[in-house]
């Protein structure tokens, strides 16, 4: 039986894992100074790249252009947040590819709405919950 990922994008599970590794490698190469850490996302096998607040949108745009538009991987899968001390930690998921996370201090971060219109809904919810401003989504 074919797994759901390969049925949609016509690649095997092995190829998806290789593309996930490639995505992490390319982000590390291009944004090495903006990466805080790379880890597994919770108990899953998915990887999570923690980047600086300033690199948040740039990494999103890079992954969208490089993987979603060319290979069909990395469709926006949601945006969520939680607070730690005086920061809000935001994470967006890119389906079958990776998660990207940043700590927001100062209450403002760049919007992802122009990359993924559905992000507007998540950003509105998070702005109300944590009093954040998503620049470009007012």
Describe the structure.
The protein has a single domain, classed as NADH:ubiquinone oxidoreductase Nqo5 subunit (Beta Polymerase, domain 2). It has helices spanning 4-9, 13-30, 56-71, 119-130, and strands at residues 35-40, 47-51, 76-84, 87-94, 98-104, 108-110, 133-135. It has 138 residues and is α/β, with parallel strands linked by helices. Mean pLDDT is 86; it is low at 1-9. The strands form two sheets. It has a five-stranded mixed beta sheet, with helices on one face. The chain has a two-stranded parallel ribbon with strand order 6-7. A hairpin with a 3-residue loop joins strand 4 (87-94) and strand 5. Helix content is 38%, strand content 30%.
The count of domains is: 1
CATH class term: Alpha Beta
User: What is the molecular shape?
Assistant: globular
- Which architecture name does CATH use? 2-Layer Sandwich
Q: What is the residue-averaged pLDDT?
A: 86
CATH topology (level 3) name: Beta Polymerase, domain 2
* Main sheet strand line-up: 1-2-5-4-3
By DSSP, the count of extended strands is 7
Number of helices: 4
Name the CATH homologous superfamily. Answer: NADH:ubiquinone oxidoreductase Nqo5 subunit
**Order of SSEs, N→C?**
HHEEHEEEEHE
Query: What is the CA-atom radius of gyration, in angstroms?
Result: 15 Å
Question: Could you tell me how far the N terminus lies from the C terminus, measured between alpha carbons in angstroms?
Answer: 46 Å
Q: What structural class do you assign from the helix and strand content?
A: alpha/beta
Q: What share of the residues does DSSP label as strand, in percent? A: 25-35%
Task: Tell me about the largest β-sheet.
Answer: 5 strands, mixed
Task: Give the fraction of residues assigned to helices.
Answer: 25-40%
Low-confidence blocks of residues:
1-9
């Amino acid at each position: 039986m074919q797994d759901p990922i390969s049925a949609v994008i016509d690649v095997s599970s092995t190829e998806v894992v290789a593309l996930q590794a490639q995505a992490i490698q390319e982000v590390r190469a291009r944004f090495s100074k903006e990466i805080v850490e790379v880890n597994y996302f919770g108990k899953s096998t998915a990887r999570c790249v923690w980047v600086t607040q300033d690199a948040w949108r740039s990494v999103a745009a890079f992954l969208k252009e490089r993987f979603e538009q060319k290979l069909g991987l990395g469709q926006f899968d949601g945006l969520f947040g939680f607070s730690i001390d005086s920061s809000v930690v935001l994470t967006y998921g890119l389906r079958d590819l990776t998660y990207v996370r940043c700590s927001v201090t100062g209450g403002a971060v760049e919007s992802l709405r122009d990359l993924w219109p559905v992000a507007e809904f998540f950003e509105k919810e998070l702005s109300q919950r944590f009093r954040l401003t998503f620049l470009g989504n007012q």
